[in-house]
Amino acid sequence: MTPQNTATSTSAAIAVVVAGVAIASLGELIDGLAVPVAVGGIGALCLAVGISLATVVGRPAVAGASLLVVPGGGAVAVALVLTAVSIGGTVFPIPDASLVSLSVLLIVGHVGVVVGTTVAALGVGLGVSGALGERSLRRFGRIGLLTAVGPALLAGALTVRALGTGETPAGAAELPLSELASLAVDPGGGGLAAWSFLLALAAAAAGVWAALAASPIRELLDGRVAAESQTGRRLDRAETALGVGAVVAAAAAAVVGTIELALSPDAISDAIGPGSYAALSGITTAGGLRRLLFGVAAAGVIVAGLAWLGRGALRRGARSVVPGLVGAAIALATAAVAEPAYAAVVEETIGRLPGPIRPRWREAAERSAAIYGEVTLVLWLIVGLIAVAVGTSLALRGVERLGYLRMEAAGYALGGGGLFLAAAFAGTIAAPAWLVFAGVLASLVVWDLGRFGTELRLEAAGARTRRLELLHAGATIGVGLLGAGLAAGIGAVVNGLAAGTPTTLALLFAVAGLVGLIAALR
Amino acid sequence: MSDRTTAELADSVRRRVRPWTIGVPMTLALVLLGVVYANETLLAAAAVPLAYLAYGTISEPPESPSVTARRTVDAAAPAPGESVSVTLSVTNAGDRTLTDLRVVDGVPEPLAVTDGRPRLARSLGPGETATTTYAVESKRGTFDFEDPAVRIRSLSGSTTITGRVPVAGDRELTATTAVREPPVRGVPLPRAGRRSADEAGPGREFYAPRPYRPTDPIRQVDWRHLAKTGKLVTVQYRREQATRTVLVVDGSRKGRVAPRPGASMGTALCGYAAERLYEALRGADAVTTVAVARGETTVPDGLVGPDGLAWVDSTDRRGRAAAEGMFRALQRTPDDRPDPEGTSETAGTATRDFDRTRAEADYDPEVRAVLDRLPAAAQVIVCTPLVDDWPVELAEALCRREYPTVVVSPDVTTGSTAGQRLAAVRRSLRADAIEREGGAMIDWTPDGPIDGAIGAALADIS
Question: Do both B139 and B204 map to the same domain?
Answer without folding.
Answer: no
